[in-house]
Task: inverse folding
């Protein structure tokens, strides 16, 4: 028999953390409000089915509720919400909770598929603040197998190869760019706001990867659209700029006169916005302040920006898949989950659960990724 008082504390924590009322939980689970209140007061014990229902509703592993020892990554977000209370709406808290849930699910899938990711280890050699970010960005590119002048492809998948759990999710607060969280089970997890401009997302993910490399002593880091000015944020920005736009490549350019055409072409190749490129060129003293001011309003048209997860899809399918991506799933994640299912490592019901959908809608979701259910007769 498990500890009712501990269970009550965990249920209360889940409800308050996600700012749910008893009515909302009852509506979402079918469990009457008086029973929910009794659970939180440690007066009665939930049935096994009720534990499973509540675990699904709160996006927690059911073992979290029945174990006297197991903790949850969501408990670590308590301090996050205390620090940034007004920045996280109820919708965003739920989004973060689902993000943490699928990070743990992905770690489980990697284990089942025996995929051993090779993490990047920060060199013991230390540099000055300026050089450390640049040198580390260069080292990560080499670690990922990129040549110095080779253009990046899908950097989200590249960084996943470092053993990072990376997901994009549409957040209610457009001022939130990204979040890095240390998950007690899954490890290093990064969430990028899918509401952001596509090329801004590229910079954000690189920025958060920097935090995952340099700031491992922190439980979390939150980045906003308006970057902070503390040393950690400056270093993360320098890493992102160095990773996306290598100094050696830019310095070899022989541009006597900068033009809109050249800047747009370069920004498109590096998959960054023009303003990010201009800041990079300025920091490397490759353009003057006058030139910066001249081009700072220059924008890349959306037609130049293609999401690697929506590439070459018919518009109708692309729209449907985008809605799935906005919910936090990625092509890589869906395919790995399906691989585990096709190898009979997980059940169809488990596949639906970790893809945040119902068994009834599962086939439709898989079809967006050119995947099918497997039937044995």
Result:
């Amino acid at each position: 028999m498990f500890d009712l008082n501990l269970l009550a504390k965990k249920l209360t924590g889940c409800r308050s953390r996600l700012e749910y009322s008893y009515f909302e939980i009852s509506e979402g689970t079918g469990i009457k409000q008086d029973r929910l209140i009794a659970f939180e007061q440690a007066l009665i014990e939930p049935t096994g089915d009720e534990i499973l229902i509540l675990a699904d509703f709160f996006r927690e592993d059911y073992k979290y509720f029945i174990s006297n020892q197991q903790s949850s990554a969501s408990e670590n977000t308590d301090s996050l919400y205390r620090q940034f209370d007004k920045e996280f709406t109820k919708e965003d808290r739920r989004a973060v909770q689902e993000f943490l849930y699928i990070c743990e699910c992905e770690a489980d899938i990697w284990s089942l598929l025996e995929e051993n990711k090779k993490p990047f280890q920060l060199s013991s050699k230390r540099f000055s603040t300026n050089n450390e970010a640049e040198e580390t960005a260069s080292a990560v590119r080499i670690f990922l197998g990129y040549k110095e002048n080779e253009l990046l492809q899908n950097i989200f998948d590249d960084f996943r190869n470092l053993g990072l759990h990376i997901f994009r999710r549409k957040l209610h607060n457009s001022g939130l760019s990204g979040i890095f969280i240390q998950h007690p089970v899954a490890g290093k997890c990064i969430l990028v706001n899918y509401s952001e401009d596509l090329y801004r997302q590229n910079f954000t993910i690189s920025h958060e990867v920097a935090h995952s490399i340099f700031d491992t002593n922190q439980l979390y880091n939150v980045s906003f659209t308006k970057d902070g000015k503390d040393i950690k944020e400056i270093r993360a920005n320098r890493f992102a700029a160095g990773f996306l736009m290598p100094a050696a490549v830019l310095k070899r350019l022989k541009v006597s006169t900068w033009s809109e055409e050249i800047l747009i072409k370069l920004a498109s190749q590096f998959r960054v916005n023009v303003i990010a490129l201009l800041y990079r060129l300025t920091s490397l003293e490759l353009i003057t302040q006058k030139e910066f001011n001249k081009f700072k309003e220059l924008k890349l048209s959306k037609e130049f920006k293609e999401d690697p997860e929506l590439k070459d899809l018919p518009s109708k399918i692309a729209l449907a898949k985008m809605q799935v991506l906005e919910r936090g799933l990625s092509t890589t994640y869906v395919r790995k989950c399906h691989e585990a299912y096709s190898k009979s490592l997980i059940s169809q019901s488990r596949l639906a659960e970790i893809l945040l959908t119902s068994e009834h809608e599962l086939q439709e979701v898989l079809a967006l990724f050119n995947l099918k259910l497997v039937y044995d007769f």
The chain has a mean pLDDT of 90. Residues 120 and 140 are 7 Å apart (CA to CA).
